[in-house]
C-alpha cells in the first residue's frame, strides 16, 4: 500500500488558461484526498515569495497536473521545484519548455522524421495583409494551449474579424489546415495508453469542444482501424521520447484518412500537462484502459521526481 503523502496541488497561474487550470485543480485535489493523502491547494501567482511560503514546509510531492499555460507549464515552475529539491509530476524543465514552444518542438519533431503540417512563422502585421499561405490555413500563437487564439482561415478577408489583442510584431504560427479527424494519444511513462477521436461540429477541437460538456464526442478507441491506431501510438511515443518527456502527456494529431496510414497523421503538438477536467481526453483514455481518475493520479504521484 502506498504511504500517505503530503501533496501540494498547484493550480491557477496568470495565463489565459487560468480558468481551465482551476477546474482541473478541483478534480485533482479531490482525487488526491480520496486516495488518503494530505492535499494542500496552492493558487500560483506572480508573487514568488507567497509561493515559497506555500511550499513550506516542503511537500513530499508537488502535483503539477492541473497547471496549464505560460509560466507554469513551460518549465518555469519546474525549474523552481528543481532548485528546491521537491519531486514533481509530469515532465522536466527542458521537455516542458520545448513542448510549450510550438516552433521549437516542431524543429525537434521534423528532425526525428515526425510529420507536421507545413508552416511559416510571421509577425501579426504581415499575416493581417493576407496571402501568408494558400487557404485554408490556421493562425495560432506559438506558446499557448487549450486551443486558445487558434483560427481556421478559409478566406483572407476573415483575418479582419480576429479579435485577439496581439501586438503587431508578435510572431505567430501559420500552418496548412489539415482536413480530416482529430486524434489524441495519451502516453504514460513512455508507453501509449490509448487513442481517442474528438468529434464536434467545429472545424477543429477548440476550447469549447475540449471543456464544455456536450460540445464534443469522445470515441475510445478511435474508430480508425488497427493499422492507424498502431501508427498513431508509435508516432506519439516517438514524439514523447524526442522531447525527453516523463510522466503523463498527450499527443494531438490531425488524421487525413484519405491518405495511406504512414502519411496520414500530422502532429500538431505534444502537451506535457494535459487537461484533467471532467471533459478532458486523458482521463477518458485512462478509463477505457481500466484506470480510474484516482488511479491515474496515484500513478502520477508515484512517478514524481525532481531528477531532470
- Strand percent estimate: 15-25%
The helix fraction, in percent, is 25-40%
Mean pLDDT: 91
Strand order of the largest sheet: 10-9-8-11-12
CATH architecture title of the largest domain: 2-Layer Sandwich
Order of helices and strands: EHEHEHHHEHEEEEEHEHEHEHH
CATH topology of the largest domain: the name is D-amino Acid Aminotransferase, Chain A, domain 1
Which structural class is indicated by helix and strand composition?
Answer: alpha+beta
> What is the tally of helical segments?
11
Biggest β-sheet, characterized?
Answer: 5 strands, antiparallel
Rounded to an integer in angstroms, the radius of gyration calculated over CA atoms is 19 Å
CATH superfamily of the largest domain: ATP-grasp fold, B domain
The N- and C-terminal alpha carbons lie at a distance of 27 Å
Q: How many structural units, i.e. domains?
A: 3
Overall shape: it is globular
Task: Give a nutshell description of this structure.
With 308 residues, this protein is α+β, with helices and mostly antiparallel strands. It has helices spanning 18-34, 48-54, 76-84, 93-100, 102-111, 124-127, 207-211, 226-243, 261-264, 281-288, 293-302; strands at 6-12, 38-44, 61-63, 119-123, 137-141, 151-153, 171-176, 181-188, 191-199, 217-219, 248-255, 265-271.
Amino acid at each position: 500500500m502506498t504511504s500517505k503523502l503530503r501533496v501540494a496541488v498547484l493550480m491557477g497561474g496568470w495565463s489565459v488558461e487560468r480558468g481551465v487550470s482551476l477546474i482541473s485543480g478541483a478534480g485533482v485535489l479531490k482525487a488526491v484526498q480520496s486516495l488518503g493523502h494530505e492535499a494542500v491547494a496552492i493558487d500560483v501567482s506572480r508573487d514568488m515569495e507567497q509561493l515559497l511560503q506555500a511550499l513550506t514546509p516542503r511537500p513530499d510531492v508537488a502535483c503539477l497536473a492541473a497547471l496549464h499555460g505560460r509560466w507554469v507549464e513551460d518549465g518555469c515552475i519546474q525549474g523552481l521545484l528543481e532548485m528546491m529539491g521537491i519531486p514533481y509530476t509530469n515532465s522536466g524543465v527542458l521537455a516542458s519548455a520545448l513542448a510549450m514552444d510550438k516552433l521549437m518542438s516542431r524543429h525537434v519533431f521534423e528532425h526525428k522524421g515526425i510529420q507536421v503540417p507545413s508552416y511559416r512563422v510571421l509577425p501579426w502585421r504581415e499575416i493581417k495583409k493576407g496571402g501568408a499561405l494558400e487557404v485554408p490555413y490556421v493562425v495560432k500563437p506559438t506558446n499557448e494551449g487549450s486551443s486558445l487564439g487558434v483560427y481556421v482561415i478559409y478566406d483572407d478577408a476573415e483575418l479582419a474579424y480576429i479579435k485577439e489583442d496581439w501586438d503587431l510584431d508578435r510572431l505567430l504560427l501559420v500552418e496548412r489546415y489539415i482536413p480530416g479527424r482529430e486524434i489524441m494519444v495519451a502516453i504514460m511513462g513512455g508507453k501509449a495508453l490509448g487513442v481517442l477521436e474528438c468529434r464536434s461540429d467545429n472545424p477543429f477541437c477548440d476550447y469549447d469542444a475540449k471543456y464544455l460538456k456536450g460540445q464534443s464526442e469522445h470515441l475510445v478507441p478511435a474508430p480508425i482501424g488497427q493499422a492507424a491506431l498502431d501508427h498513431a501510438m508509435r508516432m506519439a511515443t516517438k514524439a514523447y521520447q524526442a522531447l525527453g518527456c516523463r510522466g503523463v502527456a498527450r499527443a494531438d494529431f490531425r488524421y487525413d484518412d484519405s491518405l495511406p496510414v504512414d502519411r496520414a497523421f500530422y502532429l500538431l503538438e505534444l502537451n506535457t500537462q494535459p487537461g484533467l477536467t471532467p471533459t478532458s481526453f486523458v482521463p477518458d483514455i485512462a478509463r477505457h484502459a481500466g484506470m480510474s481518475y484516482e488511479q491515474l493520479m496515484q500513478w502520477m504521484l508515484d512517478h514524481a521526481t525532481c531528477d531532470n
